[in-house]
Each structure stands twice: as C-alpha cells, then as structure tokens.
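*** Protein under study ***
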Amino acid sequence: MVAGNVFRSTDANPEPSQGIEVLLGHDNVIVNNRFEGYSDGIQVNGGNRNYIASNVFVGNALALSMTGERNVVDSNIIAGNAVGVALRPAARMGVTRVTRNIVHRNGQDVLRCWSGGSCDPQLRRGGIVFGIPAQEHAAYVGERGGGVAVDPAKFTHICPEGAPACQAQPNNGIAPPSLEKITRSGTTLTASGRALAGGTVELFGNRNAGDTEGEVYLGEARVGDNGQFSMTVDAPSVSVPTGFTATVTSNDGATSEFSRPIGMSD
C-alpha cells in the first residue's frame, strides 16, 4: 500500500517522469495521494488487479497511464491534466475499470515527454483516452528513456496503423454509450440511452454545457439485454448540471471513453 503522500515535481527535477511506476506489479493499493507535474502521475505497466483510489492528479501529461488486467481507478479527482486516464495498447489486451471519479478540465496543453508522457502537440487529449502511444510505439513523440538502446525496426504499431501487425485498442475497444434524453422532475433527473447490452452505465454531470468529461458522478444503472437503459438519480443539491456524459463498463471490468455530451431535454 502507498497512501497519504504528495508527489510533486518541481523545477529542481528537470526530467519529471513518473510519480509512481508499477512495473509488472500486482495487487497493489495506491490511495489518498497527490500527483502533480509529472509525465505520468501513475504509470502501470503490465500490472494486474491494482486498486487506485481517492488520489488527486493535477498538471500531469498523463494523470494515469495504464496497461494490465483488472485494474480499478476509483473515486479519484483527475483535473487539469493533458489526459486524465490514458489506456495504452499492449501486446496483451489490457482491462481497466474507471468508476466514480471526478474528471474535468483535462485536455490542457501539458507537454512532458520523459519516458512515458508525450511531447506530441497532436496528442488526443481528454478525460479517458484509448490508444495513447507508449515509448515502444512508432507513434510516440518524446524521450524514450536515458541509456535505452532504441531500434526503430522493433517499434510496434497501434491498429489500424501497420495492420495487421499492430496492437488492438485497450479495453477491447468498448464503445461509449449514447445518451438520448435527460429530463428533470423536481429534485430528480432521468436519463435514457443505449449502450453495451448487460453493461453498467455511469452518468455524470458537468456545470458547463458541452463539456466532454465527468465533473460530478450522478449514479449508475444496468443496461438491458436490448441495449437500452434508463435511470433516475437525485439532482445535485447545490446546482443542477447543464451538460451530461456517461461511460459504460462491461462485465469483465472494461470501461469506455466518455459519451458525447448532451444537455437537458426539457
């Protein structure tokens, strides 16, 4: 267990790589820490069943950078990074559950490239992003590690680049839900839409219409066998969101990216 620490990179650390790297490490618990100013706040490389919860991530290129199976990212505050949760392709398909987090204001222009982050100005940014290149990928832009011998002929590719000799999207490329309608009645909100049959949808609210992440966790519901879902949740007591997004998690614990945002329907 790693708990209750502050990991903060300053100007005295000119190559701010990882706050914590979990390299082929399993069954670790990382809770109640703060990660600020790194290429990767936490980087999990091939680690399985790690539980990462109730941490704060601010000002990192990649707040969390993940490969491995059955990892869980739960109830963290992930704000003001270039990418919140970066799910990377790997030789073995990774599965990460991302649940009940506060994810907002990511997509920032944070370029940290030492051994994991990225100096790519074209990097796709946001709250949850599939297919972020790592050092071993040909598409990676940045430092690949001091003293590491690099053979470009051995770089791997991300599908569809270089297909068929490529690595598939993490989390089985699970598609995000489609939110179709949000209505309000008194102190409750009702959301409906479509998603992976049998999965679990999590609904999020955003104070600003059009935001594409998940600032406030509102609730969850199972998706029917027909791929449709409907849920009624309590509206936040302080202010009702003006925009909404959702994720879906499959039965094997793979979470999608955020859905396209929608506003209130009535």
The two ends are 47 Å apart (CA to CA). The chain has a mean pLDDT of 95. Residues 174-263 form a domain with the Immunoglobulin-like fold (CATH 2.60.40.10). The chain has no helices and 22 strands.
